[in-house]
Amino acid sequence: VQLVESGGASVQAGGSLRLSCVASGDTIGRYCMGWFRQIPDKEREGVAGIGSDGSTSYADSVKGRFTVSQDSAKNILYLQMNSLKPEDTATYYCATGYVGGALLGPQSYSYWGQGTQVTVS
Question: DSSP code of 25?
């Protein structure tokens, strides 16, 4: 499975972005997937996840602002980010290859994209 993220940009606080993660090599709709973010010298943290049954989970810091969704026909995972804050600045990664555990736990996934940078000022 290969994952390629896109959509990262520099935006002003209060703005919106939609990140995309295109998956190849397998059908994403059958698996749990997640969005994570990381800043230098910090551990990667879970932002949003979607289960194989379509259920979703969010970090407290993004609840009500971020929405995860997927287009199974196109094999794309999305992260709609609204009301962005400077503390949302990070490199965002999508992940799949769920091996069990917490949906927002980085250790629960075995395949990762290369990341896309989001900067909020």
Answer: S
Q: For residue range 18-61, what is the model confidence (pLDDT) as tens digits?
A: 999 999 877 666 788 999 999 999 999 999 999 988 899 999 99
Q: Where are the beta strands (DSSP E) in the chain?
A: 2-6, 10-11, 17-24, 33-38, 45-50, 56-58, 66-71, 76-81, 90-98, 109-112, 116-120
Of 62, 39, 41, the residue nearest 49 (C-alpha)? 62
Distances (CA, A) of 113 to 29, 71, 104: 17, 17, 16
Neighbours of 52 (CB within 10 A): 12
Q: Specify the residue for token string 């407290």.
A: 60
For the chain, give the mean pLDDT.
93
